[in-house]
Amino acid sequence: MNMIKEDPRILKLKNKILLMGSPNVGKSVFFSAFTKIHVVSSNYSGTTVNYMSGDVKFDDETYTLIDVPGTYTLDAVSESEAIAVNFAKSNPEAILFVLDATNLDGSLRLALELKNYKIPTIYALNMVDVAKRKGIEIDAKKLSEELNAPVIPTVAVKEEGFEELKNCLKKILKEKQTSENEETAEEKERSEKEETTSEKEKTEKESDFDKNERMEKNVKYWEEAKALANKVTNKKESEPSRLDKLGDKMTKPWPGIPIAIVVIIAALGIVVGLGKALRAVLLLPLVNDIIVPFFRHLFTSILPEGVLLNVLVGEYGIFVISFEWILALVVPYVIIYQFVFAFLEDCGYLPRVAVLFDNVMRKIGIQGGSLISIMLAFGCAVPAIIGTRTMTTRKERLIVTTIICFAVPCISQTGALIAMTSEYSIWLFLAVLISALIIFISVALISNKLIKGKVDPLAIDIPNLLIPDRKSYFKKLKIRIKQFLWEAEGPMLFAVFIAAIFKETGMIDILAIWLEPLMVKWLGLPAEGVMALILGIIRREMSVAPLLMHDLSGFQMYIGAIVSLLYLPCLSVFGILAKEFDIKIALAIVILTTASALFIGGAINHIGMFLGFA
Amino acid sequence: MKRRKSKRCGKCNIYNAENETAFVVEEVPDLAMLPGLGIYPGSIVYKEYCCRLGGPVVLKLQNRRVAIGKDVASSIMVEENSNEHD
What we know:
Shape of chain B: globular
CATH superfamily of chain B: Ferrous iron transport protein A (FeoA)
Strand order of the largest sheet of chain B: 1-6-2-3-4-5
Radius of gyration of chain B: 11 Å
Shape of chain A: elongated
Distance between the termini of chain B: 26 Å
Oligomer: heterodimer
Low-confidence stretches of chain B: 1-5
Structural class of chain A: alpha/beta
Number of strands of chain B: 6
Strand order of the largest sheet of chain A: 2-3-1-4-5-7
Number of domains of chain B: 1
Structural class of chain B: mainly beta
Low-confidence stretches of chain A: 194-208
Number of helices of chain B: 2
Radius of gyration of chain A: 27 Å
CATH topology of chain B: SH3 type barrels
Distance between the termini of chain A: 52 Å
């Protein structure tokens, strides 16, 4: 699977089939089913912010199917929409266009604009089940005649209509091949020449395209799309279903905000409660009573006492802390979080939260839609930062990215923070939560003042509220958990290895002496807690895990949690910052997060000492 | 709550316009995302409600619902749609 920033080579690639459509019509589900490459799909706009490509075979011929980011028009507004435009211009073999049966006019508006590119197209009329629930019936045959192309009704999450779709695709690809073979070399050359000229004219024309002309063009496409949608749609006035009624209520301030508060508390309660239960009942006994004793017994029976044995099964031994920190500390919270978050994503709840809290977000300088990226960052900051590409201004991207790096702990780090604080007292956990909220607001306000530019206001499609399809839901969970294990396991094991070497070779004691003024005098933490600062460079949760090895007071835990929350983002985040923005921004965020973590941690310690907490 | 800030209007902005009423869009600010969502001069929008304290306006366009932030909504000028069947 490829998920790379636009690569000109893929635009030049032959045998391309584009998977296109408006945002949130289910394109990624089609992509997964056709290529057998599982990508994550969700019930809100902008899940695919870059293209995905995968091979698909029709009649012994291999094609590259490209899942193009959803776009409303071909006047690219955001970075991800610009990618869609470039693909449409890249001479593909065919387009598989996904229409949303519940929002036909919106889908047809883009479909009609795309028809100008004269690319063989077949249409998948998706979500016919949801449309039926809403009393909408679409005459696919009539629509096919109007569009002069096949239109196949589908329910993507259940793969209904997919066989017919594949057969149609094969047919139009074959027809295109036959017509190309008939074209003589001379004709081809001429048409290529014409194409180049028309492309040139088009570019020149586009540069002159003023706002009025663009608006006129939009009005024309919308009017055509609406007329066409009305022609083929039969809408029965029916009582909204219970789900639709609930969806409406969830978007209105009353009772939407109380519902949102209940949902947030319930989600947090499930992650904390079930995560703690899974850790206490199953994983800690498994690690402490079975796995670690097994490895201790194994290695002590074959190795003599010394550094090597300690590196393997000592206090910080690889075969001890890798299970204690990764399996018993991080994994339970990650799994439970993914269950909860995937449910909220798939039912279409997140855009409703964006609408409800838009006014609050505007007051701190961003807009409600940014909340989706921020909520995604609780899973992992990397896809959340990539997801900011859907934002229409650089200022908004930078503010949201800064908030994610400073104030949003990833779920692994959250798990470690929960384990450290809530096992001491639930009040300590709540104090950290409130502090994180204060940091969040402060970072948003400060970056809004410092970063030049503007933030566009909210303009968001509110998706249908759906009961997640069981199959897609579990498939998504499998992808996310596998992805976590694949991507996080390596760096976590590396951190564990570094910890074992530093501790068992005595290097940590030397560092502890050097950094004693910082750790003990300034931060009020044990000198050996310096391990947290070293490992935190590799993974965020590793800036908490080593602190669990010390007998800290509640106040020290609070300082440790705040330092860890603010401390520099992990190596993967640094990499994505450099890639998505530039190295200067990545370095600036690293320096600022580290400096603020140490400064604020120390300030809290000294204020606490003054007030008599320490 | 729903009619707190709303008013009947000849020509007014959609933020201040009556809730649960259909309007014809007269003018839109120069924001490329609006035509993409189906909000352009001449389009018919149904204003469902407005969220309090500077929150967004929720509009219904055919079978879709979209939320528009206050800043943009205040610049979208509309006139009540006299054509009942729209």
